[in-house]
Amino acid sequence: MGEFELIRRFFASAACAAGGEGIALGIGDDCALLHLPAGEQLAVSTDTLVSGVHFPQDADPYRLGQRALAVSASDLAAMGATPLAFTLALTLPDARVDWLEEFALGLSSMARDCHLSLVGGDTTRGPLSLTLTVFGRVPAGRALTRAGARPGDLLCVGGSLGDGAGALPLVLGEREDSSPEAHYLLQRYWAPQPQLALGQALRGRATAALDISDGLLADCGHIAAASSVALWVEAARLPLSPALQQLFPRDFALNCALAGGDDYRLAFTLPANELPAVQAAWPDVRVVGRVEAGQGVHLLDAAGNESRPPALGYQHFGSQGD
Amino acid sequence: MGEFELIRRFFASAACAAGGEGIALGIGDDCALLHLPAGEQLAVSTDTLVSGVHFPQDADPYRLGQRALAVSASDLAAMGATPLAFTLALTLPDARVDWLEEFALGLSSMARDCHLSLVGGDTTRGPLSLTLTVFGRVPAGRALTRAGARPGDLLCVGGSLGDGAGALPLVLGEREDSSPEAHYLLQRYWAPQPQLALGQALRGRATAALDISDGLLADCGHIAAASSVALWVEAARLPLSPALQQLFPRDFALNCALAGGDDYRLAFTLPANELPAVQAAWPDVRVVGRVEAGQGVHLLDAAGNESRPPALGYQHFGSQGD
Q1: Shortest CB distance from B53 goes to which of A88, A125, A129?
Q2: Out of A170, B76, B181, B236, which residue is the most buried by the measure of CB atoms under 10 Å away?
Q3: B86, closest residue in chain A (CA to CA)
Q4: Using the beta-carbon criterion (under 8 Å), do A131 and B122 form an inter-chain contact?
Q5: What ipTM is given for this predicted complex?
Q6: What is the strand order of the sheet B306-307 is part of?
């Protein structure tokens, strides 16, 4: 038995521990088999993370396992889907047992948090990269898409923005900091919590939704285009975490929130009459703008004047790291 | 818009052309949405192909597109699943339009042949590799698995074996040959035809099945282990294509059939009373051995004596190229 066959068995035993409703057949045959309750659809999303492009080459394997699955699961949250299962295609230059054990622990930890079971995959030799495909289920016709925002809706986000971009100097080793605030930002970067419960709660309430991976303004552009509306973002209303505000000047923190990727918060449009119920259950939800007739994304500064969107001054790891 | 965003649009327009039953939402949102008829399960399989490991670095992109999808679709055939859709995660060192156009044409050609629609994926920068995830549907409880072979069953294959391994000297440029036989072998390697219709026809007839990717003997080992039986393979009964026999000495051709990978024929176990109906509809199906009580895979030579399984004398591209 080759070393890569051993890896397959390693993940297979990890998968058995997870179990899972909706899984008729897991790892070990030519295909996995999933079943859906009547009247439900399957939501599917695929993401690839490449070493040196989407994460540092010396990334801690436990954190990498956590983050890889969180990034993918966030797409299920964005559709309002209930998590079901995932496959992992792992390409590795060599089969180092200690690296794999740490990676599998991080992956399993996030899998438990997200209620996702590993049902299949492939392990190959080559430059380090990971492709995860996640599966969720959603009642037919009730998935949250990017189309559907209507003039008059509020533009909301699921919580503080900019932490992922704020963490990057720490992730890249450009800044050393052992403060609790730095630890908080690193945790937000390496173990973002996909807003799965919020996404499910927004079914039938939100008119459009997505998860913020490329930055609030860029991602709002997807809603604006798919819904044929204009989105107006009010800079003064953006929620910033205490840690981000503590570690950085306000202008930089604001730019992280507007243009930084890797937040994995939901952004969604909501009829105003739905807001009280949503905020009662999800107090971190904030209104950050509104939907109007027109097109594109527009930014209003604190004085209420339209201003030019900021650009972050450096290229970083993350979804923008094509 | 970055060059990789252009690639995404390029594949998105290719996907629209395909259309497809069972697809509620295709490319362009956070997830694709699939729906299944009542009483059916979803079959899922993921495969990665890495440049320089699973295919030559200078592989023709049209052929690579064809082969990548065929290899994955073959896993659906092995479960008896009806093809539905696939996702493509493509990692590329750069965005060369001519390469992408050829690759997309080859991929689309195989997608049409297999009735598979592209519903999503990811495009990232990095060392060339592809991860495809394929989706099929199968009536609940009727998928063909590797478990279920019973003593007394016949061991069958879906057609000639060894062509993939026989093509390798040509694929690797170790042998120059422009004969029709060489062309046939290259076609079998680069555009294997997943036996999707045969797989579906075997539902309710075959007791176990898989597709031959690692070589007949190695793959029979998976059936033997999952079914807790012994498989006896009779070398004299292996079907060899005229092209393979023309180009190579009989011993080498036979070794390709026994131990060579990349055939993507189905191997399955069948109660003897099912054979006439299967062969009437699928005349290329051949009995190559039988199932007995016991364990492991055993090889019988032409004289009926148990013989040692051969090993191919070189490492090659393909599923064995971990």
Answers
A1: A125
A2: B76
A3: A44
A4: yes
A5: 0.86
A6: B208-211, B266-270, B154-157, B286-292, B230-234, B296-300, B306-307
Alpha carbon of B98 to those of B16, B49, B61, B104, B227: distances in Å?
21, 20, 9, 10, 48
Q: Name the residue with tokens 């909501």.
A: A270
Binding-site residues from annotation of B for substrate? 54, 262, 314
Of A318, A319, A206, nearest to A271 by C-alpha is A206
Q: How many whole angstroms separate alpha carbon B79 and alpha carbon B321? A: 24
Domains of chain A: 3-139 (3.30.1330.10), 154-306 (3.90.650.10)
Tell me the two tokens of residue A226. 């798919």
| Residue/partner pairs of B100-103 with CB below 8 Å, 24 or more apart | B100/B7, B100/B10, B100/B61, B102/B60, B102/B61, B102/B62, B102/B65, B103/B61, B103/B62, B103/B64, B103/B65
d(CA B86, CA B46): 10
- Nearest chain A residue to B223 by CA distance is A29
Residues B41 and B85: beta-carbon distance below 8 Å:
no
Q: CA-to-CA distance for A279 and A159, rounded, in angstroms?
A: 11
Q: What is the pLDDT of residues B112-154, one digit of tens each?
A: 999 999 999 888 899 999 999 999 999 999 999 999 999 999 9
Task: Give the relative orientation of helices A180-190 and A61-79 as an angle to the nearest 10 degrees.
Answer: 60
Tell me: is residue A286 an annotated ligand-binding position.
no
Task: Please list the residues that pair with A90 across neighbouring strands.
Answer: A123, A130
Q: Is A143–B31 a contact, with Cβ atoms under 8 angstroms apart?
A: yes
Report CB contact under 8 Å: B121, A46.
yes
Residue A218 in tokens = 């860029």
Report, as an integer, the average pLDDT of A185-201: 96
